[in-house]
Amino acid sequence: MNTTPLLELRSITKDFFGNQVLTDVSFNLERGEILGLVGENGAGKTTLMKIIFGMGVIRETGGYGGKILLEGEEVSFQSPFDALKAGIGMVHQEFSLIPGFSATENILLNRESTRYNFLVEIFNDRMRTLDREDMQKRALEAIRLLGIDLDENMPVSEMPVGHKQFTEIARELARKQIKLLVLDEPTAVLTESEAEILISAVRNLAKRGISVIFISHRLDEIIALCDKVVILRDGEIVEEKHVTETSVEQIAEAMVGRSLEGYAPVPRESELKEEAVLEVAHLWVDMPGETVRDVSFSVRSGEIFGIGGLAGQGKLGIPNGIMGLYKAGGIVTFEGKQVLLNDPNAALMAGMSFVSEDRRGVGLLLEEPLDWNIAFTAMQTQDRFIKPILGGLIKWRDDKAIEELAQEYIDSLQIRCTGPWQHAVELSGGNQQKVCLAKAFAVKPKLLFVSEPTRGIDVGAKKLVLDTIRRYNRENGITVIMVSSELEELRSLCDRIAIVDEGRIGGIKPATEKSTEFGLMMVGRSRRAQAEV
Ligand SMILES: Nc1ncnc2c1ncn2[C@@H]1O[C@H](COP(=O)(O)OP(=O)(O)OP(=O)(O)O)[C@@H](O)[C@H]1O
């Protein structure tokens, strides 16, 4: 029997221009072993995976220290292509699928050729030489291995987000001789039932001898799935344990270095004013994978209103439609005035702001510094952070005020960065999410939509983000509409929760209602009961 570990990391170190993000990281991974890698946002998890995978950004920023051994041989991949050839597959936090292509086409395209321009050039040739039937067969095999119901011919642009994730993973599985699969927060975008399917699929892969590095902020998943857990804090391993020797609480404490108390609902129905600030009537939204058919509800002034539901039922479509990002119809009235739909500017001008679930696509100016990101919308739509000079003849950017504003949010949201001038692209996923929130708060909206605000955020930061939303609501009287696939998160923060089912509201209840009641609404109990009448 071969006793050499599949992967050995020996004293890996990495800095980005003097900012030390990994120090002396060492661990082994056996064949067929599932290793859970956890740590706060910015602890260095993704950077470590980028090193293993030979990503260009590592070389371009001065390389790394230490050694990587694969099956006992030292390796140093010059590009992801080399890593793939050696049998390492990686599914990233952000999708890299081609929207216009079907699941099959995406599954069988090589990751190294998924850059858009390159693909467009080669696509015709590739399709001519490929055997479509064989492609279909291989894609189906990979889909079957995952044990999911995925239409292999559906274009990615029409898929709900969970299916996009499955397509990404199936693509890695379709590679021959895969030995190590790295999954960076694969369940962050999945519903609980989809996540369960994924977890059993990963278990099957491990049984076939494939080793897995599984990065997740959902610690119960780590315990349920992994053999061992490696905990990173500030770029150093603080603990490596077999999962049977630890618990969710212990892992959480080791990650943040302090104990964390729970988050309980604070009911306050009696404090809320009766008047409705937002009224939505017969809203429909044409958003791929999240179609809203006919939704009506009203939100009270100063309320935190939750919108939940399973993936693909339309909950994400509601803010995206009201904010003018997807084609919508119906009547939306804010503070007594009708809001023009299909016009993002109209929604912003009315005093509404949106923290999108798609932080890379809609949320951030990735190549710009943090202060610019945070102040941008306020400057554009409200003329703030602009100072008049020469007696008002010229308007100039008030860089000092912008920097101060950014620093205030960096402190209050504990954004891990080198300063207000750091570029958004260089931040870890969770810290980018905090910047999106800061950007929305900076506009001082009257109504704030937040969609999946804690997706990809670690346990400590999650509480911080929820606390911040609550504080802004309580102190500034901002009405909040929060869309989330995590019911407990909605219950801990909201006053009332609406559940969306098949593009319609299945019911609206106070957040203090039992979880099971909401669960039943999610699976369409009310819909079926009506059908039976
Ligand atoms: N290209 C880059 N240039 C400069 N700094 C970077 C770059 N990429 C990452 N960093 C820094 O390295 C640190 C670790 O980031 P990394 O993305 O590895 O964290 P993470 O543990 O994956 O966090 P998350 O859970 O939020 O995804 C962060 O402080 C980040 O700002």
UniProtKB/TrEMBL annotation:
Residues 7-259, 272-527 form the ABC transporter domain. Keywords: ATP-binding, Nucleotide-binding. It holds the Pfam family ABC_tran. One of its GO terms (molecular function) is ATP binding. InterPro entries: AAA+_ATPase, ABC_carbohydrate_import_ATPase, ABC_transporter-like_ATP-bd, ABC_transporter-like_CS, P-loop_NTPase. This is ABC transporter related protein.
